[in-house]
Design brief:
15 helices, 408 residues, 3 strands, mainly alpha, three-stranded antiparallel beta sheet, 2% strand
């Protein structure tokens, strides 16, 4: 039986060919392409401030302005890209976004001034935001419905491995060669590999019914999942403060001058472990239970980090936070997709990603303001309060909100 969702019809031959096959060829290709795009991004991320200083003599405040443009355009492009991948041929939109993502890496070579670099970097963020939405939506498309929850959980491993490996690889390459140009070449080549791999992905033919639909917020934001998005803002806020202010908080408040690298390794390990161990629960559809456990684990992790000022607390907390966030993400992504109709998968993905970005951005901005006026200890105490509030919101409201609206 062929099925249709809001204007997109898929032949039964495709669906039946992948029934219950989680690790099908197309899914592995999409995961590989996702690893490539995040590796290409993160291999440059920790070294761009140094590049701006050495190449253009940029001051710290100018660096912040230049680099924040990437985040801003990524945030703005996601709702639009969610609409595009739902309204037009999904494979074509995926290739357009990946091609732009690839081309902008070449733009760094041509950016001979700080202004040109800022323009290229800002535009690159738009391509990145669109690509993350398109690729994750295609990943859902190539998964059999019976294994979708589990598959979305495993899909995040490609992000986690890239985030764990790429920064260290970039720093090692620069320390060994001292050449930023080589890093740009590596990023370009890796992005090209991802583009080539995604090009070979086979998707079902989509027939888009050309019905005139009025443009409204529903085309860009999943209103059916609004409380899930609000809840994710709380968790994104906490992670934003932690990611951006960990090193200086550790030094000024806890007296820890080394060990931040180990902290993030443990955090990444927790993310990976929980995705591997939680696959069975995801397959059984225990989404609200997984999200609740993840929120509670993260709450304990942030609490231990703030209130146990010793080495045990410092190195136990990232593992708990990683385990918690590694549970929250796939659970919330599945819940958001499960309250959306089939032709709103792109919108569902973009809604969740935007909410996380908003939370991260608020953490970066308000964390700095709180640290400036009340100290870093106050900022991290606020993180514990926000995490508690997010956990309470899920247990008291969001969980029942999802159960009432779920479609599958």
């Amino acid at each position: 039986m062929a099925w249709s969702g809001g204007g997109i019809t898929r032949p039964a031959s495709f669906s039946s060919s992948i029934v219950d096959t989680l690790w099908n060829r197309n899914y592995l290709k999409v995961m590989t392409a996702n690893f490539s795009l995040f590796f290409a991004f993160y291999i440059l991320a920790p070294l761009l401030p140094l590049y701006l200083y050495e190449q253009f003599g940029a001051s710290k405040d100018i660096m912040g302005v230049v680099l924040s443009g990437y985040t801003l355009t990524a945030l703005l492009s996601r709702p639009i890209s969610g609409f595009l991948v739902d309204a037009f041929d999904r494979k074509r939109m995926l290739m357009v976004f990946y091609a732009l993502f690839f081309i902008f890496f070449a733009g760094y070579f041509a950016a001979g001034s700080l202004l040109l670099f800022a323009i290229v970097r800002t535009l690159h963020g738009g391509a990145f935001g669109g690509l993350t939405v398109a690729n994750s939506t295609v990943a859902i498309d190539v998964l059999p419905s019976s294994r979708r929850n589990e598959g979305i959980g495993y899909y995040g491993l490609s992000n986690n491995f890239a985030m764990a490996l790429a920064p260290s690889a970039g720093i090692a390459i620069y320390q060994y060669t001292g050449r930023f140009e080589l890093l740009f070449w590596v990023a370009l080549v890796v992005a090209g590999i991802g583009l080539a791999v995604d090009h070979t992905v086979t998707l079902p033919k989509q027939t888009v019914e050309r019905k005139k639909r009025p443009l409204s917020i529903r085309r860009f934001f999943l209103l059916r999942g609004w409380l899930l998005a609000v809840n994710m803002v709380f968790f994104g806020f906490c992670f934003g403060v932690l990611q951006n202010y960990l090193a200086i908080y550790s030094k000024e408040v806890m007296g820890v001058t080394t060990g931040t690298g180990v902290f993030f390794i443990l955090l990444s390990s927790g993310l990976v472990v929980t995705r591997l161990m939680g696959a069975k629960s995801l397959r059984k559809g225990r989404l609200t239970r997984i999200a609740a456990v993840g929120a509670l684990l993260s709450t304990f992790g942030y609490g231990i980090f703030v209130f146990c000022n010793n080495s045990v607390g410092y190195f136990l907390s990232p593992l708990l936070i990683g385990l918690g966030n590694g549970s929250i993400w796939p659970a919330f992504m599945n819940m958001t997709v499960n309250v959306a109709v089939d032709d709103q998968r792109g919108t569902a993905n973009s809604t969740l990603l935007v909410s996380w970005d908003v939370g991260m951005g608020m953490g970066l901005l308000l964390g700095g303001v709180m640290a400036e006026h009340a100290g870093y200890a106050f900022a991290f105490h606020a993180v514990v309060v926000m995490q508690l509030a997010g956990t309470a919101l899920f247990l008291l409201a969001t969980r029942s909100f999802f159960l009432k609206r779920r479609l599958r």
